[in-house]
Design a protein that fits this description.
single chain; antioxidant; 178 residues; alpha/beta; five-stranded mixed sheet; thioredoxin peroxidase activity; 9 strands
């Protein structure tokens, strides 16, 4: 009972904290917040290439809409590269083990698309893109978004109005914007 109360307090605090941060805008600098990619004990700020890249934020690995969205970025990686995108990073508020398993399930033959664990939601919160998904996903999660950046400077921000829908962040729509 106490742990449930603490979890609720944490989720409310995370949601309030995220709402206190203004959503990232075009022209903003991407935050330098530790995330995890290869190991749970090796947090490091997300590295950004000097050229153009995409950050694709999703509410959770293995969720229905996310499982439908991310394969489009994997299968179109070469098309994105032809449009000048050097890197695609998928970011979810899950632990690194879940993200590794999700990457393996979506791309068993491998993919250059990076899967980044924002396990505490700190990166998503710093972007102003964290929301309380407690009723469905058990806690604070990332909104569904795509950021096009050049180095650490934001050039485009697309955010879904409803996290469970796929309208403005579908891979073919982002590709058409480039």
């Amino acid at each position: 009972m106490i742990s449930e109360a603490l979890r609720t307090v944490h989720n409310v605090a995370a949601s309030i904290g995220a709402n206190a941060v203004k959503q990232i805008e075009v022209g903003s600098t991407l935050p330098s917040v530790p995330v995890k990619e290869d190991a749970a004990d090796k947090p490091a700020p997300l590295s950004f290439p000097t050229g153009k890249h995409l950050i694709v934020g999703v509410p959770g690995a293995f969720t229905g809409t996310c499982n439908g969205q991310i394969p489009g970025y994997i299968s179109r990686f070469d098309a994105f590269k032809a449009k000048g995108i050097e890197q695609i990073s998928v970011v979810a508020v899950n632990d690194v083990f879940v993200l590794k398993a999700w990457k393996q399930s979506l791309a068993p033959e491998g993919t250059p698309v990076r899967f980044i664990a924002d396990d505490q939601g700190a990166f998503s919160a710093a972007l102003g893109l964290l929301f309380d998904a407690s009723p469905v996903l058990g806690g604070a999660r990332s909104k569904r978004y795509v950021i096009v950046a050049n180095g650490d400077k934001v050039e485009t921000v697309a955010v879904e109005e409803v996290a469970g829908q796929l309208t403005v962040t579908e891979a073919s729509k982002i590709l058409a914007l480039l």
